[in-house]
Amino acid sequence: MHGFKFYEKATRALRDRSLLSKILIIGTVSGGGLVALSDSGAFQRKNGAEECKKKKVVVLGTGWAGTSFLKNLKDKSYEVQVVSPRNYFAFTPLLPSVTNGTVEARSIVEPIRNIMRKKGMEVQFKEAECYKIDADNRKIHCRTNGSSNLGGKEDFALDYDILVVAMGARANTFNTPGVVEHAHFLKEVEDAQRIRRTVIDCFERASLPSLTDEERKRILHFVVVGGGPTGVEFAAELHDLVVEDLPKLYPAVKDFVKITLLEAGDNILSMFDKRITAFAENKFQRDSIDLKMGSMVVKVSDKEISTKDRLTGQLSSIPYGMVVWSTGIGTRPVITDFMKQIGQANRRVLATDEWLRVEGYDNVYALGDCATINQRKVMEDISAIFSKADKNNTGKLNLKDFKEVVKDICERYPQVELYLKKKQLKNIDVLLKNAVGDPKKEALELDIEKFTKALSEVDSQMKFLPATAQVAAQEGAYLADCLNRSEQCEKYPEGPLRFRGTGRHRFHPFRYKHFGQFAPLGGEQTAAQLPGDWVSIGHSSQWLWYSVYAR
């Protein structure tokens, strides 16, 4: 009876104090058993509140930018969802090596779920393709790419607080007729595997006894369109395969093999040092790779490529067995539609600020090949910069006033340092002194006109970042670091002064650090161009190339 009264009192107490954690263990009068009373609702409500506090981060893409962001994001206060039509990360610099079997496809991919599992935080993945971004309503619309036997395609929508657009780009066909229907591309693992199968098919087809020699020549004529890094590297890898390896298996047709590289410009590898360009062209000529400079492709049919000479305008036709198209990157349709929504229809790719935010949307970030940083010009803010430095409102600036903001100017506008380097000026003080016509003058005063004149040419050094894996990976890591320290930097901003406002920017702006570039040229030879105007060409650079990608 005492036990019952105790139970009754305990029940009343718990009911009256609903906000308390309601867990009690009560001894009963029968057999020493235990009764556990609990009310988990309080805990559920608490957990629900915590869940509501989590910001929803949606990442579009599993390429270099998106994967780098995922790997570096550590703050568990975010609820992360990844949407991509491919459920793996591909190490794209080695795609040309997959085409000739030097590297197996499985060696350059890592399942995205494996990367997520290592995170130690909750990340959800959805294998689907985003076909519409609704930034005004903070929503994306997606469609699965399932086959018909799995229920076909399914549409769904996701809400977000922060959107990371890292969808990469597609091959740029320049709307050339027949390219999509007849050419191969080299953007995905599946592309590399398809190219390898086609090469083998060409050799098998050419080995049939019913063909004429002219047909064999056409079938074993491999054409590469584009003299950039991807096109050149693929042509080199293809040469190693079809000239050195496959003739051992197909000796009867080895004399019919030919490789042609078409480039609309005057040189291949035009973005590299001239020494590398010259070496690559000479090596290709020694390898009997036919280089046709100034050749613009105007049409591709199932058996011929029509070209136009850039200088003479003369048209010609080139019969081929396989053509690989590598002429740069183009914008994906979903990005094009999004750009129209936000007033960027006249741009080639999404424009972001120096913090990778899409212009006009503070909660949408764009990284990698689908975006470019629209660096703000000094001349757009020249009056605001002058006013910020002129704290006493005298209308004049001396060197002491200017030195207090010079660090913020150089960080906010990186073109200033590039201009000083190009002009071989020691520092910005020398630039200002030159503006007043007296480089040796110590006591310097500038009004707004002279200040504007001093900085009038610095914007000429503004540069767009290249669409490379290096840039994308660094952007992903940068954004993840910003989100990891978001709360801290909200309280203690670390960025440069806001020249058109008050206080400082929350974060330092993104700065790309270039580690060099490589161009494998076949025959165990590679060209390397590293910072500091350091150029290396030959077998030693090949081992440097291998070491960069050693895991």
UniProtKB/TrEMBL annotation:
<protein>
    <recommendedName>
        <fullName>NADH:ubiquinone reductase (non-electrogenic)</fullName>
        <ecNumber>1.6.5.9</ecNumber>
    </recommendedName>
</protein>
<feature type="domain" description="EF-hand">
    <location>
        <begin position="377"/>
        <end position="412"/>
    </location>
</feature>
<dbReference type="GO" id="GO:0005777">
    <property type="term" value="C:peroxisome"/>
</dbReference>
<dbReference type="GO" id="GO:0005509">
    <property type="term" value="F:calcium ion binding"/>
</dbReference>
<keyword id="KW-0274">FAD</keyword>
<dbReference type="InterPro" id="IPR023753">
    <property type="entry name" value="FAD/NAD-binding_dom"/>
</dbReference>
<keyword id="KW-0576">Peroxisome</keyword>
<dbReference type="InterPro" id="IPR045024">
    <property type="entry name" value="NDH-2"/>
</dbReference>
<keyword id="KW-0496">Mitochondrion</keyword>
<keyword id="KW-0809">Transit peptide</keyword>
<dbReference type="Pfam" id="PF07992">
    <property type="entry name" value="Pyr_redox_2"/>
</dbReference>
<dbReference type="InterPro" id="IPR036188">
    <property type="entry name" value="FAD/NAD-bd_sf"/>
</dbReference>
<keyword id="KW-0999">Mitochondrion inner membrane</keyword>
<keyword id="KW-0106">Calcium</keyword>
<dbReference type="GO" id="GO:0005743">
    <property type="term" value="C:mitochondrial inner membrane"/>
</dbReference>
<keyword id="KW-0520">NAD</keyword>
<dbReference type="InterPro" id="IPR018247">
    <property type="entry name" value="EF_Hand_1_Ca_BS"/>
</dbReference>
<keyword id="KW-0560">Oxidoreductase</keyword>
<dbReference type="InterPro" id="IPR011992">
    <property type="entry name" value="EF-hand-dom_pair"/>
</dbReference>
<dbReference type="GO" id="GO:0050136">
    <property type="term" value="F:NADH dehydrogenase (quinone) (non-electrogenic) activity"/>
</dbReference>
<dbReference type="InterPro" id="IPR002048">
    <property type="entry name" value="EF_hand_dom"/>
</dbReference>
<comment type="similarity">
    <text>Belongs to the NADH dehydrogenase family.</text>
</comment>
<keyword id="KW-0285">Flavoprotein</keyword>
<keyword id="KW-0472">Membrane</keyword>
